[in-house]
Amino acid sequence: MKHFSLFVLTGLYSLLFTACFFREAASNADTEESVYLSSTETPNGALAEEESSASPPQNKVVMSNLGQGVQEVNLDLFEAEGLPIAVYLPSNQFQGESVEGESGKEIHLFYEPNGERQSDVQIHFWFPEAATTLEEVRNLVLSPEGPISAQGLTITDRTEVVSYPWAQEKFVYQRMDDEAAESLEQGFAFIGEYTDSVGKPGFFIVMMQYPAKQATTFETQAAMILDNVEFVDKAF
């Protein structure tokens, strides 16, 4: 009988110890999970708020291959008043101008290497007022009166696979003058999307146009600009 009582007491003690152990383990697990969530959520939230309220920097330095090996390239900020976009231009290579017309607001980036403007080489941002949805902007690009066909250019390809995060669709177009390969004029158009200060989506068109003989140099310059498009919190 004495041995049986001792056995029961030992069993009760073991159960009590096990219960206390698992209770402590569960408490520790809850504490660790709570610390983990607070340590990840709080800094990220603060960082996101800080980034959204920050103005774009006046200059950037990027690495690019301009035919002389990979090297640093200085980019200068260009902002157009009243537009939700900021672009960065390779120093001493482009001149930016903003225009407001009946059809909407525009940014023209003229290629000016060595201070000499090349009128047949440019990048054009257009924020059309008449088209406010993705489908409307797409129809505008494809229209016979649109920015491509109206210039006598022909769309040769289109894709929704685009490397720029702001771009929804890409169009390839060209024009051949006098059937001479060296006079081939070509370019790309993009439909871009942004979100305004109240969370409403907006759309714009980007066109880059140039003679085929300047493709190597200009496409590299243009890629730096389109890779560094930033959207700013402005009323539009």
Q: What would your notes on this structure say?
A:
The protein contains three helices and eleven strands; from the N terminus they run H-E-E-E-E-E-E-H-E-E-E-E-H-E. It is of the alpha+beta class and 236 residues long. The chain folds into two domains: 1-54; 59-231, Mog1/PsbP, alpha/beta/alpha sandwich (Protein Transport Mog1p, Chain A, 3-Layer(aba) Sandwich). The strands form two sheets. The protein has a seven-stranded antiparallel β-sheet, with helices on both faces. Strands 1-2-3-11 form a four-stranded antiparallel β-sheet. The chain is globular, with a radius of gyration of 30 Å. The chain starts with a helix and ends in a 5-residue tail after the last strand. 21% of the residues are buried.
Describe what is shown at a glance:
By secondary structure, the chain is α+β, with helices and mostly antiparallel strands.
